[in-house]
Amino acid sequence: MTTKVGVLLHSRHLETESWEDLVIGRPLDDRLGDAATLTREVLTLGHDHELSCIVMGGGFSQRDGISEGEYTKRFFLANLTRLDEFPRLRPLLARLSGPQRAAFSQAVRDIIIMPRAGNTVSELETAAGIFAAHGVQRVLQVAAASHAPRCLKEQTVARARGLIAKEQQWYTVATDMAYRDTRPEDVCVIEPLHRRDQPMTFVRPGLSEVIAPYFFLPDTDKKAFVAMVAEFMAARSGAAPPWR
Questions:
Q1: pLDDT (tens digit, 0 to 9) for every residue of the chain, 244 residues total?
Q2: Domain of 101?
Q3: Is residue 182 one of the residues assigned to a domain?
Q4: Which DSSP string corresponds to 157-196?
Q5: Residue 184 lies in a domain
Q6: How many structural domains does the chain have?
Q7: Is the residue at 179 inside a domain?
């Protein structure tokens, strides 16, 4: 029995710094971006797995009058030949026959651009519906290394709300690329404490509950909050705040 596979790519604002590196990757360093990671995942599918469709977020930014998702898709197509520059991808691409390579190129041309969504959970709900319509059973959610942890979190939220069919198995695949001047180590994951030997487990509200609304604050309040936390941490650690 063949398992149908769908791939979800998260588009990003077209003015993001080092946008091309995030989308393609860095061939000289063999660091895979979105397109390169997509290629690796598709070309290493097992014989009992079949690519059904690729879905990409719409996004709100534009360039030259072209929407974020469509612009990213066109960029993918225009840079397909660069994939051979990645040492890890070169042997995978070399073993493809002419028709197989043509089929891969067509799969990129057939990328489905989703309507713009208000948030990530809504985007996941739309993607899950598209995958269901294509009979997809396994979903590979490709995201930058610095964004993948949040994507996994939002995926679990969408599933908990019944927005993802139980028959769909979702997997988050992190690329090698992080946002400019950041590292995967800079991602902070704050989960609700659960250990009974940890006194803070029983403190309510917990840190994760307090931090959760952060994304909905106005930018001025976010700056004030970050400055306050930095001052607090510096005072406790004896280090100067990072901006001094």
A1: 899 999 999 888 999 999 999 999 999 999 999 999 999 999 999 999 999 999 999 889 999 999 999 999 999 999 999 999 999 999 999 999 999 999 999 999 999 999 988 788 889 999 999 999 999 999 999 999 999 999 999 999 999 999 999 999 999 999 999 999 999 999 998 888 888 888 888 888 888 888 888 888 999 999 999 999 989 988 887 765 554 4
A2: 3-174
A3: no
A4: HHHHTT-S-TT-EEEEEE-S--STT--GGG----PPP--T
A5: no
A6: 2
A7: no
